[in-house]
Amino acid sequence: MTLVAGVDSSTQSVKVVVRDAETGALVREARASHPDGTEVDPAAWVTALDQARDGLLDGVSALAIGGQQHGMVALDDAGDVVRPSLLWNDTRSAEAAEELVAELGGPQAWADAVGSVPLAAFTVSKVKWMADHEPDNAARTSRILLPHDYLTWLLAGRPEVAVTDRGEASGTGYWSPITGEYRHDLLRMALGHDADVPRVAGPAEAVGEMAGGIVLGPGTGDNMAAALGLGAEPGDVVVSLGTSGTAFAVSDVPARDPRGLVAGFADATGHFLPLVCTLNAARVLSATAEMLGVDFDEFARLALAAEPGAGGLTLLPYLDGERTPNLPQARGSLHGMTRGNMTPENMARAAVEGMLGGLAAAVDALVDVGVRPRRVLLIGGAAANPAVGQIAATLFDVPVIIPPAGEYVADGAARQAAWVLAGGATPPEWAQVREGDTVTYEGQARAEVRDAYAQARSSLYLG
Questions:
Q1: Which of 38, 58, 121, 382 could be a cystine partner for 282, CB 3.0 to 4.6 Å?
Q2: What is the dihedral of CA 445, 249, 39, 186, to 10 degrees?
Q3: Which residues contact 154 (CB under 8 A, 6 or more apart)?
Q4: CA pair distance 42, 44, nearest whole angstrom
């Protein structure tokens, strides 16, 4: 049996799976925690990965890493970290993003240049924030990597040339999935000078070796790895409910959305991955359950006991600001309150509908750039809540599929590692990566629920 390993280095933790390279069967897995926060010393990721992989990689032939997108890892001439990494969910760079958009000539200019309009989350915005607020650190910065790039570079022994893949590079704001080239002029615009950036490797290219001879794949961003782990195909819209919420789809053509709603990313296979991201997902449910003083099972019971529309109660769940729509300084708000509808049941339902309402709007944005959904695949921690799938069916017009719970980012990275070993034009087919039941809910969107969410959101712009 040939073994491969996949790593998911996410905001909150690192997960490592070891799978059979031919069948995808799970052999073993481990995890370790990351510190909380929106900026983190990359050494914490290294410590967690070392802990998780300790004794796990015996017999493994290849490994690849899926990592949280956008995080800025600034290195000096010696390869040392200049400052803690600013993560995707750090919104201090919102003003820097606005300035970059204006400096290039507006949203359309950015959409044409790199397929995406920079928001606070994008690496290029964080680079500009550092240049504006920490000029000494910016001056010391000679190389910029992303989290998965950095870990791969360390595992490869810190080679002179670091590597990334097109999926991860497409989230920087200075690499174009349209042309397949870096835009060093945009990086200079943000940093004030040029910097080394990782080489963009092919989807199944071996990019180095770890100590012990384990072959390294190029890795990719977490959403791209999840699509690979799920085996997503055109027509599949993946809605992921983790710390953030994402809606993305595999596409044969690059997206260019001057509204800035859809990021025109590349995927990990040579295709494209138009994506919409919200800052607020699973933690909306955990925060509401904590406020109600209930566990998740009771929270689900309460939510399902309420009627669709939560008695007129609508939650805009912008608890940590918001990325889509681009409202980094917004806060959550509760609309339509009356003495009659302020019940635990309606509050629980409003939390689920609010979380999903933003992602239903995200799917609408994907449709606007040419995606034609045939089904929604609902994954992530919050998808396991019994109320989420049933309520999702009232917000989407297409079937809602909940695959068995799994580490799809790590699985996608492992599948890439198997592809590196096997070669060929397409990744190996893994017929059954996950054991367990797939649950399907027929989509029956309730217009009143969607309309109430849209009306509440519009009030932010009117105010």
A1: 382
A2: -130
A3: 46
A4: 5
Tell me the per-residue pLDDT of 144-187, one tens digit each, with 9 for 90 and over: 999 999 999 999 999 999 999 999 999 999 999 999 999 999 99
By the 8 A CB rule, do 254 and 298 touch?
no
The CATH number of residue 191's host domain is 3.30.420.40
* pLDDT beyond 60 at 438: yes
Burial class for 92, CB neighbours closer than 10 Å (0-12, 13-18, 19+): middle
Spatial distance between the Cα atoms of 162 and 144, rounded to a whole number of angstroms: 10
Which parts of 293-407 fold into alpha helices (H)? Answer: 296-305, 344-368, 386-392
Question: Which position has the token pair 């079937």?
Answer: 399
**CA 385 to chain CA centroid, nearest Å:** 20
Q: Are 45 and 147 in contact (CB under 8 A)?
A: yes
Token pair 């070891």 is at which residue? 18
Residue 245 lies in a domain: no
In a domain, 214, yes or no: yes
Q: Average pLDDT for residues 201-209, to the nearest whole number?
A: 97
- Burial bucket for residue 225 (CB in 10 Å: 0-12, 13-18, 19+): buried
Residue-wise pLDDT tens digits, 350-378: 999 999 999 999 999 999 999 999 999 99
Which of 230, 237, 315, 248 lies closest to 280, judged by CA?
A: 315
Active-site annotation holder among 8, 90, 222, 236 = 222
- Whether 171 is covered by a domain: the verdict is yes
Q: How many structural domains comprise the chain?
A: 1
Residue 431 CA to residue 249 CA, distance in Å, equals 21
At 300-338, the pLDDT tens digits run 999 999 999 999 999 999 998 887 887 888 899 999 999
User: Taking 80 as the threshold, does the pLDDT of residue 122 lie above it?
Assistant: yes
Angle between helix 447-462 and helix 344-368 axes, rounded to 10 deg: 80
| pTM score, whole prediction | 0.90
Angle between helices 282-292 and 296-305 (to 10 degrees): 90
Active site residue 54: no
Q: Which domain holds residue 143?
A: 3-222
Question: Helix, strand, coil: what percent of the chain each, to 5?
Answer: 35, 20, 40
234 located within any domain: no
Six token digits for residue 212: 């012990």
- Taking only the tens place, the pLDDT of each residue in 31-86 is 999 999 999 999 999 999 999 999 999 999 999 999 999 999 999 999 999 999 99
Q: 215 near 63, Cβ under 8 Å?
A: yes
| Rounded Cα gap, residues 145 and 156, in angstroms | 14
